[in-house]
Amino acid sequence: MPELKGVILVVEDDPMQRELIAENLRQEGYQVFEAASTQEALNLIAQRPVEIAVVDYKLGNESGLELIRELRRRNPLITPIMVTAFASIETAVEAIKQGAYDYVIKPVDFQKFLLTLERARERFRLQREVADLRSRLEEKFSFKNFIFVSKAMEQVAGLMSRAARSEATVLITGETGTGKDLIARLIHFSSERSRGPFLAVNLPSIPETLVESELFGAEKGAYTDARERKIGKFEAADGGTLFLDEIGDLNPAVQVKLLRFLQDREFYRLGSTRALKAEVRVIAATNRNLEKLVAEEKFRADLYYRLNVIRIDLPPLRERKEDIPLLVDHFIREYSRREKKNIKGISAEALDLLLKHDFPGNVRELENAIERAIIFAEGEVITRADLPVFLEIRSEKELAESTSDFSRPLTDKVRELEIREIRRALEKSGGVKSRAARLLGITERMLSYKMKIYGL
Fold it and tell me: Is the entire prediction scored with pTM above 0.85?
């Protein structure tokens, strides 16, 4: 018995033809279901996971073309193949337009038919992989993964929601690491363009001489190394979204061409005089002050106004520290899965250290700190000792500044110092009081007393 290759539905109103096709396919190792009419076929796909549908052009008084269209509507992953005795260019074109992958002519040449089936199986496999990938992307970049409790981010979420329902150009501003790329992807995957491509271009990473060809494409011979036609990002993103990161770094010559595209939806490949069109939504982002660049005549005012239709300003993490515990919890779950560790949370001391940090690198810096902590953690809880050293250095610097402040009583400074040293000793000793007391040079009884009065 050959190995099962796939699941095929044969729809043919002639019993002899249907049985002949079905039996040959079974001998080749396919699982085959049979249907004599449109309704039988639709009932079967509602109950069975069909991969390929072999459909006759004429089904009594019904049309196989209409069945193909309905099969694709109900399950876009099904790969239909039309079987017809009426071979013509018009028939083939109409079958493809309705969603057929290919067509075969009666009487069926089974050797050729099997080759067509192999290609159809490969197409089904690729479609399923793409659908799975898109599903994971949509899950990753869905609004439910947009984590916040702060008022500042609540306003951002409202703007994102409006942007997702619109076709307008979006400008996202914010410091490095605030998540501008994530916001752009969230808008795309929540919009009607979600089935189209999302392409991201980091403009500063492209040599200035190649930016134009990267965005708009180039004809063969347009410049020294142009050995073949190059398709630009605008052309490749047709039907979807193009994310232009760090738009403030765009050189003046390309600014003019981007403005033309935003006004007329037209562009030219480098080295060509033929205007091309692309239905692309542009989302731009920058960590620079565009208003200042406009005032200094380093960025075109008309382009700025074209980009600044929906403006989303992302606040730095230091201005929304109430979001840190939720983000920490999210990153712990994410990196624990990746590292195959059972990390259940973070200690109060470690979280307190994170809350005191200003995070100049914003969410990206926080994520990197938690990723590092997950890798180095030996227990089920992230401790202060698992966090990066720079957080400790910053904490000690702040402590030194606070202890040199003569406006505060000595008792407060001593209390802070003792709490800090007790916490460090407990972490280093794994929470064993007797060991921690020896590290501190005091008795275990004294340590217990201090822990009680300090509420540790």
Answer: no
